[in-house]
Amino acid sequence: MDVEMRIRGLMLDPNTNMPIVVLKDVGSDTVLPIWVGIYEANAIFNEVEKQARPRPVIHDLTRMLIHYMNGRLDRVVITELRDDTFFAVLWLTQNGETVTVDARPSDAIALALRVDCPIYVAEPVLAMARVNSNGSSEGPSAEQLRKWLEGLNDEDLGRYKM
Q: Which of 33, 57, 102, 130 yields a CA-CA distance of 20 to 30 A from 143?
């Protein structure tokens, strides 16, 4: 089963200064942080803030291609967490046929925002993210970071957002 998520915020990891997209379960306080690249974070940020670009970026181009090919992006699903890397799938409909396309989660999220389609995370991915968060490393654990992210309010996100 897939869990519907929404973007809770976009911020910088206080330890690494890497961008993080924070997804939040629409039905609970569960959050899922996904570290992304700076270009992907900018593409997501620009769409969240509805900032127009002078030229289309790849996510705008993809949206237009789907539209011109009489397709529709129905949903994106983050399907897997393997070796600390998330995987996603785009669920498209074209001519009444369902097509799935492999995608990076950051690209899938940026595209979902542009076409206003739902974002889902597979339940096993959420469960695995919780289990994997118990590993030891320098700095706060992923579980500690997840709990910190769950406790952030809008003012906190404003302070850390990109």
A: 102
Q: Which three-class secondary structure string do you get for the chain?
A: CEEEEEEEEEEECCCCCCEEEEEEECCCCCEEEEECCHHHHHHHHHHHCCCCCCCCCHHHHHHHHHHHCCEEEEEEEEEEEECCEEEEEEEEEECCEEEEEEECHHHHHHHHHHHCCCEEEEHHHHHHHHHHCCCCCCCCCHHHHHHHHHCCCHHHHHHHEC
List, in order of start, the domains of the chain with CATH numbers: 2-160 (3.10.690.10)
Q: Is 77 helix (H, G, I), strand (E, B) or coil?
A: strand
Contact in structure between 38 and 19 (CB atoms under 8 Å): yes
pTM: 0.81
**What does the pLDDT look like over 97-125, one tens digit per residue?**
999 999 999 999 999 999 999 999 999 99
- Residues 46-89 have pLDDT tens digits of 898 888 888 888 999 999 999 999 999 999 999 999 998 999 99
Residue 148's contacts (CB-CB under 8 Å, 6 or more residues apart) are: 140
Calpha distance 105→85 (Å, rounded): 10
Residue 83 tokens read as: 């070796």
